[in-house]
Specification:
The complex is a heterodimer of chains A (448) and B (480). Chain A is an alpha+beta fold. Chain A has 14 helices and 18 strands. The model of chain A has no long low-confidence stretch (mean pLDDT 93). About 2% of the residues of chain B have low confidence. The chains are: A alpha+beta (448), B alpha+beta (480). The complex binds flavin-adenine dinucleotide.
């Protein structure tokens, strides 16, 4: 470790907070930091940021490290600021349906705590056992149950952050309705650690439903599955996701289109048993009317195994280094069209495409895995593919964000895409909150 | 540029009949539904986003201040034009529904559209717009966006911010930008979320993309009357603990009950301490099941009367007392100061007791009519301005807001900070917290040209909270 850095941080952070060992294990997209520090409390976080910004160092806040590959490669990286040690669950108020916790608590821990009172945290993020609350909020990735609960932005009611200069501030509160001052929670959620470091948050909870069941329809075509999905949207499912054959094959046999069929549509129904039963029969009829070749109903236990697997699709930690995942967002009515466009753009031999479409909110993920034994896409082919995807997605009103690709492939492409609406305003926001570019420089849209 | 040439320049943009500058014409624009008054310099009423942009650009060039205005139903002075020669931009001519997309359950509307008109426009498709401020017959979507308006049914469905997908905004220099839009999770910061609740200080919303929901298949409304406030509060907690988040969960206390019975009787026993209104909606089976549960909770807590209705007309009757309460208070006191604090719902009872203490200590009757389900209190301090009581009523209000914050709550749940509560902001926020908020305004509107003097405590002398009361200048059928 360079001694100049030690000089900067000793005294400000407890020296035992400075992590030792091979620093490459803390790399962000292949860029190793010069020092890694994991403070035990908010004061420690402030100390690190104050020292780093005073010395012009670049800091990457890191939670569970499960989604560090999101964004462009860091322009600069000196300090990895680990937040796992801020792991206090501060308050669960069952009667208020709220919870307050520090950023380093894992989503799984939060879920199991609130589950003891028959409640759930309405955030279905991939890899919950390793994902921290702070990380989940910073990336604001949404899972299938967004249909019922919204995203992290709808769930967060209060937040504490430490800004780039080390100043701790809060916004919002612990109550479920609040318009006191600007809603800065919305700004920090999804900002990928580029505006401030989230150290604590309060969130709203939901009661656990009495019954959970999932109808799985197998369809000859993606178009049929999407049509069926639009038909059943009004029944108020908690989640509704379509997978193609390749993605479905990764769902432990629970929703895998057999040979010759192109899509499986999963619709999760929750609520009182009688209400679930009626909707279940409505759905069966609708599916069959839309050419489904089969409809199967998964009871609670299986349904509960299915959805975490759907949420994790493409995010598994033993990823292939050559995986490419691109996220799109369209109107629900254009999901089928978008899927077709993606299939057409996809290079045929050797690489196989898996599609996961949350038809109810129009978020679609396409993942290219190297096919068994076949050649992987090289970085140049990836860049070409992404360009082609963007060319086809734009007329459908969609962006194409590269969520996952080998670090090397990022040299040739901007993972967020060009022409982001409101970019000037976003730059002014960054300029206000982090004028020196201390936090995650370069990783966000437009090189923010 | 002198005033006359400014007027003609504005007339050139929006047309002669849509620029108001004679003192008589400006009168209606000098206040909102709170009591703060200030005469704007000029009022312009543009017809399109392009016209708004040209007006804003002109003001920018001339270094003038601007205040957006919807229907003027705000309760915190948001639409009152502070500052010298401020131009008020009224959005009321821009009231079209531009697009309804029934498949994707969304609509694009102009900001001057009246909230209820949106639901009326889409109801034939079996859809509705969920946020329902009690002022929904008058208030505009633009005003709702600016205040992040709530309403009785926001308990289950969320407030305005949860229903806005995108906003077209005219920025300070007259440039037009889309925040968010039709697709979800656009790359970049959630500018839509940051803009909603900006109280007109960040920019002027000129188009809004909103989410629509399928109308519920069944609705059941319960009216439960309790002899003791303790039991009514326990019923609120009991319903939530039973895993039910009702569509609405509203409460009124004894003083409000007596006011209603005095003004437009609906048959409440005047010695009851609390009336609880509970509404559940959704699929028929869901409503049946939740309804049974709600009934069970109320009964087990000794509800003195329990009625319910499924039919729209009968449900309206059950709501009548609740909806008439604010108007009724106007019949028992010349003025009232309406508050909007929020507390964790488990601490309702404790805070209501604090309110009772304030009532005793300050010597003003205080009625409570409120959104119990989400802990959103609306204490009404009754006073008589003619007796010079306004100042002391404000002190009582201050004591209540303080009690809310001390109980882990906040200053405002839906009415906004505006002029009214800006001096109270330091009760909740440190100077650093406020500085972090100011940065957002510095990014959106670096010249602070929009809605000056709102939200933030003014200058260095923010020691003594000096709010201004909302009074009973509201129409008799108003409710909150
Ligand atoms: C009887 C009564 C009951 C009420 N009940 C509720 C309730 O249940 N829930 C609730 O939340 N509120 C309630 N209110 C408060 C009020 O109706 C809301 O705050 C409403 O959102 C204001 O809308 P408006 O069109 O009247 O806006 P105005 O009062 O005209 O303006 C409010 C604010 O919005 C800004 N603004 C207006 N249009 C725009 C625009 N296009 N772009 C940017 N800024 C803009 C203004 O500058 C101002 O700061 C009630 C008010 C009354 C009088």
């Amino acid at each position: 470790m360079p001694t100049d850095l030690l000089d900067i941080f000793t005294g400000l952070a407890d020296t035992s907070d400075i992590l030792t060992g091979d620093l490459s294990q803390y790399s962000v997209d292949g860029v190793a930091p010069r020092i890694a520090i994991a403070p035990r409390d908010v004061v420690g976080v402030s100390g690190v940021l104050r020292a780093a910004s005073a010395s012009g160092l670049a800091v990457a806040p890191v939670g569970g490290g499960t989604k560090l590959f999101l964004g462009n490669r860091p322009k600069r990286l000196d300090v990895v600021l680990g937040l796992r040690r801020l792991d206090c669950l501060l308050e669960h108020a069952p009667g208020d349906l709220t919870v307050t916790a520090q950023a380093g608590v894992t989503i799984e821990k939060l879920q199991s705590e609130v589950a003891r009172h028959g409640q759930l945290l309405p955030l279905d993020v991939p890899l919950p056992s390793h994902t921290t609350l702070g990380g989940a909020l910073a990336v604001n990735l949404t899972g299938p149950r967004r249909l019922a609960y919204g995203t992290a932005r709808d769930v967060v009611i209060g937040i504490r952050v430490v800004d780039a200069k080390g100043e701790a501030t809060k916004a919002g509160g612990r109550v479920v309705k609040n318009v006191t001052g600007y809603d800065l929670c919305k700004l920090y959620v999804g900002s990928l650690g580029t505006l401030a470091v989230i150290v604590e948050a309060s969130l709203r909870l939901a009661p656990m439903p009495l019954e959970e069941r999932t109808a799985v329809g197998i369809f000859p075509s993606i178009q049929d599955a999407c049509d069926a999905a639009l038909d059943v949207m009004r029944l108020g499912p908690r989640a509704m996701t379509m997978v193609d054959a390749r993605a479905g094959s990764k769902l432990a046999g629970l929703a895998s289109p057999p040979v010759g069929q192109q899509a499986a549509l999963m619709v999760e129904l929750t609520g009182r048993p009688a209400a679930v039963t009626r909707r279940q029969s409505d759905i069966q009829a609708t599916f069959l009317g839309r050419n489904a070749v089969s409809v199967q109903v998964l009871e609670k236990q299986e349904s509960r195994r299915l959805w975490p697997a759907v949420t994790d699709l493409g995010w598994d930690s033993q990823r292939s280094p050559q995986q490419l995942t691109v996220r799109f967002g369209v109107l629900p009515s254009r999901v089928a069209e978008l899927c077709r466009a993606v299939q057409e753009a996809s290079p045929q031999p050797g690489v196989s495409l898996g599609l996961v479409a949350h038809v109810g909110h129009g978020v679609v993920r396409a993942t290219w895995w190297p096919a068994n034994g076949g050649p992987a896409l090289d970085t140049k082919a990836m860049a070409l593919l992404v360009a082609e995807l963007r060319r086809r997605a734009t007329p459908l009103g969609s962006y194409a964000i590269v969520e996952r690709c080998p670090a090397a492939a990022k040299e040739g492409l901007d993972v967020w895409g060009e022409g982001v609406e409101g970019l000037d305003l976003m730059r002014r926001i960054k300029e206000q909150y982090d004028p020196q570019g201390t936090l995650n420089p370069g990783r966000f849209v437009g090189g923010i | 540029m002198n005033r006359a040439s400014l007027v003609s320049a504005l007339e050139a943009v929006v047309g002669k009949e849509y620029v108001f500058h004679h003192p008589d014409d400006l009168l209606v624009y000098e206040s909102d539904a709170s009591v703060d008054r200030h005469t704007p310099g000029i009022v312009v009423v543009p017809a399109s986003s392009e016209e708004v942009a040209r007006v804003v650009h002109l003001a920018f060039e001339l270094g003038l201040l601007l205040v957006p205005r919807g229907a003027g139903t705000g309760l915190s002075g948001g639409a009152v034009a502070l500052g010298e020669n401020t131009i008020q931009v009224a959005l009321t001519r821009m009231h079209r529904v531009l697009e309804v997309d029934t498949v994707n359950q969304m609509a694009v509307v102009e900001p001057g559209l009246v909230n209820l008109d949106l639901t009326t426009a889409v109801s034939r498709y079996g859809l509705y717009y969920a946020p329902d401020p009690s002022s929904q017959r008058a208030c505009t979507i633009g005003g709702n966006v600016a205040e992040n308006a709530g309403g009785p049914h926001c308990l289950r469905y969320g407030t305005t911010t949860n229903h806005v997908l995108g906003v077209e905004v005219v920025l300070e220099d007259g440039s037009v930008v889309w925040l968010g839009g039709h697709s979800r999770d656009l790359p970049g910061y959630d500018l839509t979320g940051a803009f909603v609740g900006g109280e007109g200080t960040l920019g002027i919303a000129t188009r809004v993309v909103v989410r629509l929901l399928p109308a519920p298949e069944a609705i059941r409304t319960f009216l439960a009357i309790f002899d003791r406030m303790e039991d009514a509060s326990a019923a609120v907690s009991g319903i939530i603990a039973a895993g039910i988040v009702p569509a609405a969960l509203e409460m009124m206390d004894n003083l409000a009950i007596r006011a209603v019975e005095n003004a437009r009787p609906v048959g409440y026993p005047t010695d009851a301490e609390a009336v609880l209104l509970v509404e559940v909606d959704g699929l028929r089976e869901e409503v049946e099941g939740e309804g049974e549960e709600v009934g069970r909770v109320c009964q087990s807590l000794g509800a003195r009367q329990l009625r319910f209705a499924d039919d729209p007309k009968e449900r309206e009757l059950l709501w009548a007392g609740r909806k008439g309460a604010l108007g009724a208070l106007g019949t028992i006191a010349p003025n009232y100061y309406l508050l909007d604090g929020v507390v964790p719902r488990t601490r309702l009872l404790e805070v209501l007791q604090r309110v009772k203490e304030v009532e005793r200590q300050h010597g003003f009757p205080i009625a409570n009519v409120f959104h119990a389900g989400d802990g959103n209190l609306h204490p009404c301090v009754l006073f008589d301005e003619r007796k010079g009581e306004a100042h002391r009523a404000i002190e009582a209000a201050g004591a209540i807001l303080k009690a809310c914050v001390e109980a882990g709550g906040v200053l405002t749940g839906e009415h906004g900070v505006g002029i009214e509560k800006r001096a109270f902001m330091p009760l909740m926020f440190t100077p650093q917290d406020l500085a972090a908020m100011e940065r957002l305004r510095d990014a959106f509107a670096p010249g602070h040209r929009f809605n000056p003097g709102k939200v933030f405590p003014e200058g260095a002398t923010c020691g003594e909270p000096q709010p201004t009361p909302t009074s009973s200048g509201l129409p008799a059928d108003a409710w909150v």
